[in-house]
Specification:
Length: 145
């Protein structure tokens, strides 16, 4: 028997709902970069790592907001009309998940960046260094999708 098929297959309706939900919860580096380059004002990028790691390299335009410091008091300054895209080092780190969870639990709209800073760099996008957010000026590789 097929290893792929032995656990069953979702119906097209179930599969569509599942994949639609994934797209509501996550975004990828190419889509985020496209929005940054277009000047999309509706999103805010949150680097959920420590300030030290942020200073070593971060997505241009991202603000440093470590997930460990997120609570009702520290998030009071955040706009409620934005979508917050959280990221961390990469798939081996759950800082972005922790940050997205905390922000969502506090009533903010959030998405998680697939692959974090690792996949951002892997796709050829620039990083900023230091304590200032910076600005993305040009794209990396174009998504092959």
């Amino acid at each position: 028997m097929s290893h792929v098929l032995r656990t069953g297959v979702a119906s097209p309706v179930e599969a569509s709902a599942f994949f639609e939900a994934q797209l509501k919860f996550r975004t990828d580096p190419a889509d985020l970069a496209a929005d940054l380059l277009a000047g999309e004002a509706g999103i805010v990028i949150i680097d959920t790592r420590s300030p030290e790691h942020y200073a070593e390299g971060h997505i241009p335009g991202a603000v440093s907001f470590p997930h460990r410091t997120m609570n009702p008091e520290t998030t009071a300054r955040l706009a409620r009309d934005k979508v917050y895209v959280c990221y961390c080092d990469g798939i081996g780190c759950n800082g972005s998940t922790q940050g997205a969870y905390k922000l969502a639990a506090l009533g903010f709209e959030v998405k998680e960046l697939i692959g974090g800073l690792h996949w951002w760099r892997q796709d050829g996008f620039a990083v900023a260094t230091g304590s200032e957010p910076g600005v993305l000026l040009e794209g990396g590789i174009t998504c092959a999708c």
